[in-house]
Amino acid sequence: MRRSPRRNPGTFIPALLCALLAGLLPAAQATAAARPAREAPARPTPTTPHEAPTYHNPLTAGVVDTFPDPVMIRGKDGLWYAYGTQNPVFQSGGEDGERMLPILRSADLAHWEYAGEVFTPETKPAWHKGARLWAPDIRYVDGHYTLYYSVSAENTVGVATAPTPIGPWTDRGAVLPSPSGCATGNIDQAQFTDEGGQPYLYWGSYDTICVAKMNTARTRIEGAVTEVGQGRRMEGGFVVRRGGHYYLFYSDAGCCDGAYSGYQVKVGRATSPTGPFVDDEGIPLTAATSKGGVVLTANGNGWIGPGHNALQTDLSGQDWLVYHAISSDDPDLKPAAGGTLKLSKRPMLMDRLDWIDGWPVVRAGAGPSQGARRAPVASWAAGGTFNDGSLKGWHGGGGSGTGGWGVEHEPDAQGFVAPRGNPTGPVHLVSDRSAPAARRAEADLRVTSATGAAGLLAEYTGPDDFVVAWLDRERNALVTDVRIDGHGRGIRTTPLPPDFAWDTWHNVAAEIRGTRMTVEVSADRLRDAVATQERALPAAAVRPGKVGVAARGTGVAADNVGAAALHTPVTTRVPERVPGPLLPDYSDDFDTATVPGTTADSPWSWVRGPASGVTMAEGALSWPTQGAELYLGTNTASVLTRDAPPGDYTVETRLRFAPGRANQQAGLVLYGNDDRYLKLVHAVLPVSHTDGKATHVTEFAKEGERPTTTPPTPVAYGPMFGGPPADTLWMRLSYHADTTRNETEVCAATSTDGVRWTHTGVWTLPTVSRLRIGLVAQNTAGAIARFDYVRTYRG
Questions:
Q1: What is the pLDDT of residues 63-77, one digit of tens each?
Q2: What is the average per-residue pLDDT within 344-365?
Q3: What residues contact 692, with CB distance under 8 A and at least 6 apart?
Q4: 336, 337, 341, 344 alpha-carbon torsion, rounded to 10°
Q5: Alpha-carbon distance 19 to 698, whole Å?
Q6: What is the largest CA-CA distance in the chain?
Q7: In the chain, fewer beta carbons within 10 Å around the N or the C end?
Q8: If DSSP codes are grouped into helix, strand and coil, which group holds residue 727?
């Protein structure tokens, strides 16, 4: 999560230095002198689907003013918890200071409440010095909650543990050595555990993401450090495993520049947790180029810079992307900490994450949602959490009472169940209600005796008809068993890690779709299972039925047991934008010998031109890049422009361009004036490596006024980065007049073959005046840009 605006493209200022300086605010400034008390409220009661069928973005509206870099976990008490970056979250209530890693809590993923903070000025560890604490990541590890966080001024990652999701937190020091072995910023960390139990930590930021193995306690990295991603402002890595692939989500461009934040979420995948990761066009994430694999980007509906994501799974098995974004109507916080701290307002959002053709994308490609949307499934069709201390709604296997089971209590899990006595054969506790045949069933299970076994009854219709997934301690294995009419239909065994922590809670989730069952064993439902088993089920075993738990031997406990109808996956993306008919009067194939804009009858005209060296040859406009700028107060570059048609339109060019030096760029522009334009260029930009590396990007940027800052900023510039460029690149800018918001919307797309397009996000500007279609070739001299045509289409 970054907080520095884009620098002048002609001047390289080390971004890491800016990050460190941003974190050096004295603790006294970062915390209000008078800190109003906000006690964590009583635990919420889970709502029913009838009470909360929808949710609205932002999730944090009316709760906190801002909640950057959010992550979530489902606690063992059955509630969801979210953690965010240190920010002045109660500024609207008159609080000038910040909450250090604030915590929110929800019973249904749709309605949230403030639940505390990880550290206070009194409990903040001394080694943090004046640092602000950023970008938390939360995991459940060996019976406690482990929270990783970025320590800004120390340029490292810290870790703290707690017995419950809200604390009390004990700091465990720095996770990374110094130097860490990663080329750039040592922040924006995320932990991941592979099948078999090997833990990893991903971190980086300011252009690089790295990974290393962790020790068993997950408190320090160890061994080799591997760079898995490199790109302009690449950061915010988060990894999940799905099928045979590991997916590395990340954000690029800029997170924290108000209405000029170009943040978006992208992804690469690999067959190993250490890579190589590639995007959906096969481009390695370590390549010196911008990438495709767009998961989430601005769509023009008022949300700007969506990014720094985490993932959460609801009770139906549907994945949801958790992220922050900036409202175009309310982008900036007031200066805090005595006026020295100026931040963007980044509330928490959440939207459905679809997996289509092996790649994740938010809402099938529709982007951030606005208005009421169908809420995540947060209530089971059958099951419960036992937090009320009773067994109401449950019965023993075979229809018997619940005398063989009892409810116990502990601070974290609250209520949970355990069999009484020492059952030598399996005993069952089963829900009174049934769930559909296509279901996701899950339970938190624990086995403290050496010979015990705890099972999830994923489907139960009677004592001789059930599907069970056991955590069998004696075998150190996940064991599934299917019985129909008293006859076994096969046992399947999957080893668990050798150091599997049997004395703590583990989530077992079974999804039954058709006759296929997939069972995952994980610590915290964050798509990093330590064991996975898939098996076919007999058709007779797939039917509506109960859900429950099974026990064999002593030391067995179960909690959060239930089943819900399995989600129906979305398998088709929203249609891509396709241009309409060609508008010949606004197009040019550059098939004459006359340089555009040099004759009285030309539809083209120059701003500061004609540019030196422009020629017409081989059916193309050939333009040497200028050592000149079109950036904020430096407006010396030439711009070739012509009228745009009325209404919505798409303008396209094919650019042949092979720049060889940093800051050379060429491409399309929609031009109002020198301080009000949108551009799409193939550019070469520096990255924050000490060896002077540069990267080729498709840069989609806007420049315009920013009246919301204090004091108002007369002009600002913001980039976002599209798909990979090439020596021959097709480029499109699509214009739309949003009359309801009185905004000009422009979206960008690029292609390396003219057939498959990578669509970047939408930039908006208030509608003030007509824009003109234009071309630029600028910033650093020495390259030749050849424009084969400019074609404009309706729509």
A1: 999 999 999 999 999
A2: 98
A3: 686
A4: -30
A5: 25
A6: 98
A7: C
A8: coil
Q: 435-468 burial by CB neighbour count: b if 16+ within 10 A, else e? A: bebbbbbbbbbbbeeeebbbbbbbbbbbbebbbb
> Residues near 546 by Cβ (< 8 Å), separated by ≥ 6?
382, 430, 431, 432, 433, 434, 435, 457, 459, 460, 461
Q: Which residues of 643-653 are buried (b: 16+ CB within 10 A; e: fewer)?
A: ebbeeebbbbb
Tell me how far apart the alpha carbons of residues 562 and 568 are, in angstroms, rounded to a whole number: 18
Compute the distance between CA of residue 660 and CA of residue 683 in angstroms, rounded to an integer: 10
Architecture of the domain spanning 382-565: Sandwich (2.60)
Q: Which residue type, as a one-letter code, is found at position 66?
A: T
Mean pLDDT within 119-143: 95
**Which pLDDT value is given to residue 51?**
53
- The secondary structure of 312-324 as a DSSP string is EE-TTS-EEEEEE
pLDDT number for residue 423 = 80
pLDDT score recorded for residue 210: 98
Q: What is the mean pLDDT of residues 687-705?
A: 86
In the chain, where the domains are located: 55-374, 382-565, 584-794
Domain 55-374 has CATH 2.115.10.20: yes
Is-same-fold flag (382-565; 584-794)? yes
pLDDT digits (tens, 9 = 90+) for 269-302: 999 999 999 999 999 999 999 999 999 999 999 9
Rg (C-alpha) for the chain, rounded Å, is 28
Task: Tell me the C-alpha distance between 102 and 82, whole Å.
Answer: 8
- Give the end-to-end CA distance of the chain in Å, rounded to a whole number: 35
- Helix, strand, coil: what percent of the chain each, to 5? 5, 50, 50
Q: DSSP strand E in 420-555: where?
A: 427-431, 439-447, 453-462, 465-472, 477-484, 487-495, 506-513, 516-522, 531-536, 546-552
Q: Is the pLDDT of residue 38 over 60?
A: no
When the candidates are 3.90.226.10, 2.60.120.200, 2.60.40.60, 3.20.20.70, the CATH number that belongs to 584-794 is 2.60.120.200
**What per-residue string of b and e applies to 487-499 under the rule 16 or more CB within 10 Å gives b?**
eebeebebebbee
Q: Report residue 544 as tokens.
A: 């509506």
Of the candidates 585, 689, 602, 690, the residue with the CA atom closest to the CA atom of residue 640: 602
Per-residue pLDDT, 549: 97
Query: Which tokens belong to 58?
Result: 């932002």
How many Cβ atoms from other residues are within 10 Å of residue 281's Cβ? 14
What does the pLDDT read at residue 332?
95
Higher pLDDT, 40 or 540: 540
Q: Would you say residue 60 has pLDDT above 80?
A: yes
Please name the amino acid found at residue 738.
D
pTM of the model: 0.93
Which whole number is the average pLDDT over 478-503? 96
Please report which confidence band the pLDDT of residue 386 belongs to, taking 50, 70 and 90 as the band edges: very high
775's enclosing H/E stretch is strand 772-778
